[in-house]
Amino acid sequence: MAQELATFTRPLAKDASSALSTEDLRVHYGAKEALHGVSLNFERHKITSLIGASGSGKSTYLRSLNRMNDTIATAQITGKIMYRNVNINLPQVDVYEVRKHIGMVFQRPNPFSKSIRDNITFALERRGLKDRQKLAEIVEQTLKQASLWEQVKDDLDKSALALSGGQQQRLCIARALAMKPDILLMDEPASALDPISTANIETTMQELKKDYTIIIVTHNMQQASRISDYTAFFHMGQMIEFDQTRRIFTRPQVQLTENYVSGHFG
Amino acid sequence: MNPKRTDKIATTIIYVMATTIVVILIALLLYIFFAGIKTINWHFLTGAAKSFQAGGGIGAQLFNSLYLLVLSMLISLPLALGIAIYLSEYASAQKVAALIRSMIEVLSSLPSIVVGLFGFLVFVINFHLQFSILSGALTLTIFNLPLLVRGIEDALQTVSNSQREAGLALGLSKWETVTHVIIPECLPGIITGVILAAGRVFGEAAALIYTAGQSAPPLNFSNWNILSLTSPLNPFRPAETLAVHIWKVNSEGLIPDATAVSAGSSLVLVVVVLIFNILARYLGNKLYKRLTGE
After folding, report:
1. Closest partner residue to B171 among A100, A111, A115, by Cβ?
2. What is the pLDDT of residues B161-206, one digit of tens each?
């Protein structure tokens, strides 16, 4: 049984509109409960950081939001995930459709071994978009959004695997944006990158925030405090505290959060 | 004995052992080459086999081997692809997958003569397919399937899981991810596996003796009527392959130049199998470079 921990969740401001919310979201791997009922509300066009030590359940939670945990045979996800007034955690929901609206960028850059252009257009073409002109526009637009256009505009037919790690990650962001998602989930997108690439990605995220709602898992507390509007702290499969980022880092309401953000553990 | 000395001795012994395999292969190839090269000429490669006199060729046998290979690949490749994709991508019940895998292991360890006799009973006798290319191709499929499945599954498994996630996270279905992300990614590996299996099948004799038959009716390469006995494309005609021919002239052949014919045939067989192997490596590397843009 999970031990009872003190928790604190500050609701979003009254005029804030919600892009996504969860109610009592639980994840079981076999008989073991890995996530103990998380209820959170994500504000539109804001960045929310999920922080916590390894194994705290933050990645498990993030991967539940676009139903990626469905791919794990032993995983069982219960509770509600509300997106546009629909509970997308129901078996009859088309997960492929969900993932078009809720895009994802992974910890390690995972471009396809195709050309830079094809990495972006491939999924669109599978969706039936054949118009060359339109596809070219989307390639340019998304690469610009991911701040990669200037570096690769002359090499669009080159293999994506020839790019550096940071460039590959930005290509993965562009690829996710091409599907025109509402929400972008990022699972430690900068943890495999050098500081300069990390800074580039963070700048990119600030730009993206105008059009997208971003939920990011990060190990790096400086990063969370730099980039995010809201922060949720996870500990041992439980969501301990959710608040505006500056409050989490300056005046947390729960002792455990205070211990974590001041570096006492984790 | 000090550790340095022990290491030196062990290294030497291991080197000698490793050299053995090289020596065996080279000795074998050299022997086959020099024994067979005298017989090889255009007439031998394209001419018809003789039953009693010297100077027969292996044209029909060579064609039969290739045709049988193509036909059995046409049957076994789609099957193997399906099985491998199931095992690697879809099998969620690990017990079922493990059961299928162990069945494939057993199937691949069956002696080929046993598979051949099974093919004889089932395809030749029971399904009235007679001694024919089709019987042979179906029997070879049984023989070939485990090799192909394992080769393709291994290739699929080399693709990182992050590629599957990338596809799914873009809203692609599992099938789209498999066919448009995973398979292109490991296509070089799949092709290598297929060609290597083809090499094994090409040299197979025991499974074909009682299925494709031991006689090679003369072929007329201008006859395109696939139901005619002399048409090379007729899948219902008996067809002695190169490997079966080698066995036949040595065991019950009546031709005076049996030694020369079998030596020449062996050389052709080995060269073709070598070409398959080299082709597998070459194509695999080339495709990989092209796909990854290195």
Report:
1. A100
2. 999 999 999 999 999 999 999 998 898 889 888 988 888 888 888 8
* Structural domains of chain B ordered from first start: 37-292 (1.10.3720.10)
β-strand pairing of A183-187 with A213-217: parallel
pLDDT digits (tens, 9 = 90+) for A185-220: 999 998 888 888 888 889 989 989 999 999 999 988
Residue type at position B12: T
Q: How far is A97 from chain B (nearest CA, A)?
A: 6
Structure tokens at B110: 């069956």
Quote the CA–CA distance of A197 and A28 in Å, as a whole number.
35
Q: What is the largest CA-CA distance in chain A?
A: 57
Does A68 contact B181 at a Cβ distance shorter than 8 Å?
no
Closest C-alpha to B64, from B294, B195, B191, B245: B245
State how far residue A220 is from chain B, nearest Cα, in angstroms. 22
For residue B166, list chain A residues with Cβ-Cβ distance below 8 A. 106, 110-112, 172, 175
Q: How far apart are CA A52 and CA A50, in angstroms?
A: 7
Tokens of B216: 């090679």
From the list A73, A99, A158, the residue facing B169 with the nearest CB is A99
Chain B hits for A106, CB-CB cut-off 8 Å, are 162, 165-166, 169
CATH of A16-261, one of 3.40.50.300, 3.40.50.980, 2.60.40.1120, 1.10.8.60: 3.40.50.300
Indicate left, alpha or beta for B126 from its phi (over 0: left) and psi (-120 to 50: alpha): alpha
Q: Do B180 and A115 touch (CB under 8 A)?
A: no
Q: What is the DSSP code string of B53-118?
A: SS----HHHHHHHHHHHHHHHHHHHHHHHHHHHIIIII---HHHHHHHHHHHHHHHHS-HHHHHHH
Name the strand (E) or helix (H) holding A43: strand A32-43
Verify whether the Cβ–Cβ distance A68 to B160 is below 8 Å. no
Which ranges of A162-220 would DSSP assign to H, the alpha helix?
165-178, 195-208
Model pTM score: 0.84
Model ipTM value: 0.89
Cβ contact B163–A110 (<8 Å): yes
Distance CA A147, CA A218 (A): 21
CB crowding A140-156: b at 16 or more within 10 Å, else e: eebbebbbbbeebeeeb
